[in-house]
Amino acid sequence: MKNFADLTEREVLAVAIASEEEDSRIYMTFAEDLAERYPDTAKIFEEMADEERGHRHRLLELYEQRFGQNLPPIRREDVKGFLRRRPVWLTKNLPLDTIRKEVETMELEAERFYAKAAEKAEDVGVRRLLGDLAEEEKHHENLAVQLTDEILQPDVRAEEDRTRRRMFVLQYVQPGLAGLMDGSVSTLAPLFAAAFATHQNWQTFLVGLAASIGAGISMGFAEALSDDGSLTGRGSPLLRGLTCGLMTTLGGLGHTIPYLVPDAWPNAFWIATAIAGIVVFFELWAIAFIRARYMDTPFLQAVFQIVLGGAIVLAVGILIGAA
Asked: Which of 154, 265, 287, 295 is buried most deeply by CB count within 10 Å?
């Protein structure tokens, strides 16, 4: 990779041309991805892609006047200090706020590049154009705000907010809730069976730890392999799998950790079991609340499904362990 200070004026212009072309394609990719979910916001990125194509055209004209038609094969990836852009295939189904932050970073980086390049340029025409582009990139965020105000009317904003909430539920809440339910409920039986069979806190902790991690790995793979998100819009399978797996593990560890109470303590087993029971109570009610809050499930129905089901699993574990 080359240092920015070592670039020639010709290479600076070549990097700028390649960067504007790539940024234009990225904006159009955002627009295409958002067209179905957020059609009005997609228009904003189409406008910004047009702006980037205009910048590229002006840079090409100046380059041809100075150096001819042959562009050296250099891109910003070949220059130290540039932030790497996401690969296009990783920009699919990104949350809208994430895309907007990505755009802010792109514009800030472009503005700083043109400002430094203008300071370095010796040719008056090149310095002027690079300085102008730095100012235009600096005001691109204002352009986005202006376009947002013009295109996104209150009713459109409300619809996009509803869509954003649906996407949040699909991509994060559903896999996380599925993992939390599985980790909290499915590990109750083996944990409390081991507890009442051994009356040993450390042995019970090991069983709960193994059950939690094993369930997390299983649920994570199951979620990631169930849907690639291309049709359902549920987002990256890797992200969903990680979310589901981590929440499954955390759900099981919640009532496993109390069994770290040392066996040497007086009544250590009953202390740990009492704490674990309290943790289970709050876990099940938290799951019921999340189902009611995000999954449009009536609260009493959620309580009946989760709390009653968890209590039955808990009782089964205790009966088997005490047998």
From this structure: 287
